[in-house]
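User: Please predict structures.

Assistant: First:
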Amino acid sequence: MKQKMIRHPYSTFSSFLKEHNNILKESLIALLICACGDLVAGIVLGRMDIFLETFPGLLVIIPGAIGMRGNIFGSFASRLSTALHIGIIDPKFNRSEELINNIFSSFVLTLFLSLFLAIIAKVICVIFGFPSMDIVDFILISLIAGVISIVIMLPVTMFISFRSFERGWDPDNVTTPLVAAVGDLFTLPAIVVALFIISALKSVVYLELIVFIIVIPLVLFSFVYCYNYSEENKVIIKQSTPVLLVCSVLGVSAGGILNSSLETLLTNPTLLTLVPLFSGESGGLVSILSARLSSGIHSGLIEPLKRPEGESVHNFAIILLLALIMYPFIGILAESSSVFLNIVGIGFDKIILISSIAGFILIPIMLILVYYISIVSYDNGYDSDNILIPISTSITDAISSLILISVSLIITCLLYTSPSPRERQKS
């Protein structure tokens, strides 16, 4: 009778690190770069209090806009990586039908989803009674920011995809998180530029309305034209649009959660800085897991079983280990930015506690959700490049906002002691 070999736990952990050393290093570097982009986004958001008050309801659209860039261009990068590996596209920016179709569809999806995002944001504001700007402002801000981000994101996404391929980096660990980081970095500045453009349009009588009347038919026409442009575009639009519409609703829901706690966020700028950091790193972790599970299932390394086993569990362990490093780290980044900018923070102990607890609540939930989403999408024959990452990261955005705000309110209520009666009398 064979005896089971019992490994010492430290030996097991050591062998795990050795086996997955490259994956952990590549992923950690990508996540650290993401954190830098998310920090810039967080600092910009933390300084946007005047805009958030001047343009009521703006916070509702921000998480959806950030998520949409990552979803559309993350899928674009994933399709490029697939095409590069099977030799359909040459990694030298040479003109090809495959590349043109992907660029065109990403461009049109950004415009169409920006329009939809604005409408949903206004509907959410009306339903929940949030103060909000009018629908014309919502739509034009969203579309202008979308166009600005397209100009930046298209070439950057191609550069990252081609460079990753040439250097032999695993796109599952590197490309998607980096593209998401670039989206996080430029979305908020694009929205700020859009706000200035809207203010300029308002200075001329009826000019904003005229631009609105011209732009809406153009967006709808471009969507229909792209759908009929080629069979490949039709597949991309057909598979991506329903998923991205759902993602937009989830993103705006996350914005609604943040907007409901706007007063708390405005009085604690460090928390406002933490929001993009937490959402971005959570999305990065989930996108790495989604890409690895999808690749594993399609390559046969992972069996789509009802209960995760083997390689799936290894991937879970990788994500948990990365989470243990990243969540305390982004708390430190958020508070450090407040210290650097001479903004009153809430303290390193509290912000690290908030970030870590919220992250350790979120990640186990997302491990299970992403695993079963990947199995369902595979069993139903959906292209994971167009579906798995957008759905997973959008669900993460919505749940992460809810968890982060809830934990923030609990921690700040428990650890911020109210002044004593004697202190009140002195004041």
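Second:
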Amino acid sequence: MQKEYYLMLEDTPVLYMHFDDMEVKLFDKNLLPFSIRNKILEPNSDNIKEYYKQNSKNLELIKDFAASRVLSLSRENAKKICTALSLSQDNSTQNRAEICFSCKGVSLTDSYWFKEPDSNEKWADVDLRHKHLAEIIDIALAGEQPTVTANPDCPELTTKGLFQKCWIRENDDVYLLKSDRTKNFINTKAEILASDILDCTNIPHVKYEETRYKDLTVCKCKNFVPEHISFVEAHDVMECCKDNHVDYASVMIKTFGKDFANIAVIDYILQNTDRHDQNYGFLMDNKSGKLVCVAPLFDHNLALIADFQEKDVSDTLSQMLGSKTTIKECYDKFAPYAKIEFNSKKWLETKQKYPEYKNILKRVEERIAETKCIRKIMIPDQSLDFDDSPTHEQVRAGFLRQVPGGRCTLEDGHAPLTLF
């Protein structure tokens, strides 16, 4: 492993580390990743013993952060990906960190990366949004056996989740393809149906569309993280709240109000049992290091599965808060703060589009009728003339406005999260 690196955020050095010399230099605490923002501490240089003790802790935290960026070996086809890239399948923190450093830790969902001191590379040279992708779709998505060694400059190494997936480039945009191994691709079809239901609301979300790859039914979505913005997992913000001895849920409601509360409500409506703390999050301005809005909702391939199976999972743990709170209890907790608009015209169109899911959509409709925080609910067999719900791009543009220099400011009255 290379002895020393800079942790960069775009072209801004955040900290310097030297593993052999047990040295860590912090340049800007406010730009540290949220998961370690309040854990990396400046050691007292007057006390040599304490200096090396603290830096030892700092270096372990950095290695943990690097290791956390690498795909899980539990992911479908992960071991084949490692074989194709000639990478060790040792699942230790040390090995995973080494893999991260070897590919610079570059991800499509944030702008952190590791730079060697003698490198002249800039963010533009490594940013996967614009760089040629070493596509390994046959391996990562279709699960075929690797026959050649691939270029390590591929986003698969830093893409999380357990289902089979792969990034591809189409023209100037990057898309994620995702599938599953269930009979009739139920998880993939549930993700697409959930996306169409979300289209009937004003909740910002990633749009999933159905496509095919070889013998697979696949859902396809566009990368939702714009330039100069980083996605931050809820888990990392929870850790930061814990370090600051503040209640995560209270801070999120105070800061983001309905946009945070709507998550619990829509998960109850969709019976989503997989909203764990890495399956939702926030968007961070790379210039200030502050959270500016709730990220568009994504990953719905375990939503509606209970309806497919004609079960009720309301008493299943929601995972949203990392606590022993059920989906229904989470809904009850946040419903008073939620506000969702529902487009009846689009709902009718969705029902007409999916006659085979008539019973599933009926169950969804019954849960919608239960709620007290949804405005303009459709009256059965009566089409009300509502304005079209905003698209994902329109809602996101409402939160973030590009200004000179490509940075972002808020337009809807939220103040960036400054607690941390």
